[in-house]
Design brief:
mainly beta, 8-stranded antiparallel β-barrel, about 220 residues, 1 helix, two-stranded antiparallel ribbon
């Protein structure tokens, strides 16, 4: 059961990539340059709102493959598949929970590079799909009254799956060329349309996913065409 669930989550990510293949094929047919490589870096913002009942255990890193297609007139298209880890731990009165998620983002960006000889400053904007899946463990104890708790704890383990997030992406960076090697540090902003994680504790605080994300990324690519 666990194997089939994990396989289904991976297929969702693959399906998201397959949906981008026609666009990529169309861009390649008009390409002046084609660069493949990897992009990595870290989030500069938190992915969960703060709460006295929760502690984020998310990782800051983001990493994954990328492909960049150079088009005429200084334009280009970049498609990434970026992976990160998200999670939190919460505790409130007689209950506690812990969630761990794998996060895949699939940005599709239109770029414009300024026509300078040595370096290529650029701006970009586009769309991103996001797939989040993992698990949540929940624990609770019964309150018997008089300051007494039961020694019996209920425990539930649930798979998480949030695959309906979409975001608007904008960014700016600088491109460098050393032979066929391409380097591109950049800042990127994403506004997501939803809050996949939304926890409302009884008579207590709440915490949710944040909708605004700022990343510092560094691309390393190789010009193959």
């Amino acid at each position: 059961m666990l194997l089939s669930t994990a396989l289904a989550h991976r297929l969702r990510g693959l399906n998201a990539m397959r949906a981008l293949l026609p666009l990529l094929a169309s861009c390649v047919s008009y390409a002046q340059t084609l660069v493949t490589g990897a992009k990595g870096g870290g989030r500069l913002t938190d992915d969960l709102t703060e709460s006295i009942a929760s502690t984020t255990e998310s990782k800051r890193y983001i990493v994954g493959p990328m492909i960049n297609v150079g088009l005429p007139l200084g334009f280009g298209v970049e498609i990434d598949a970026l992976y990160s880890r998200e999670g939190y731990r919460s505790s409130w009165y007689y209950s506690a929970s812990r969630e761990r998620d794998n996060v895949w983002q699939f940005p599709v960006l239109l770029q414009y590079k300024l026509p300078l000889p040595a370096i290529k400053p650029y701006i970009e904007a586009g769309y991103a799909a996001r797939v989040i899946h993992g698990f949540n463990d929940y624990y609770a104890a019964a309150y018997l009254g008089g300051g007494q708790f039961s020694t019996f704890y209920t425990h539930s383990h649930e798979d998480t799956n949030y695959d309906n997030s979409q975001g608007f992406v904008a960014g700016a960076g600088v491109g460098f060329a050393i032979g066929h090697l391409r380097l591109s540090p950049e800042f990127r902003y994403t506004h997501w349309n939803s809050r996949p994680i939304a926890v409302f504790l009884p008579n207590g605080p709440t915490f949710t996913s944040t909708q605004n994300q700022v990343d510092l990324l560094f691309g390393i690519g190789w010009k193959v065409h």
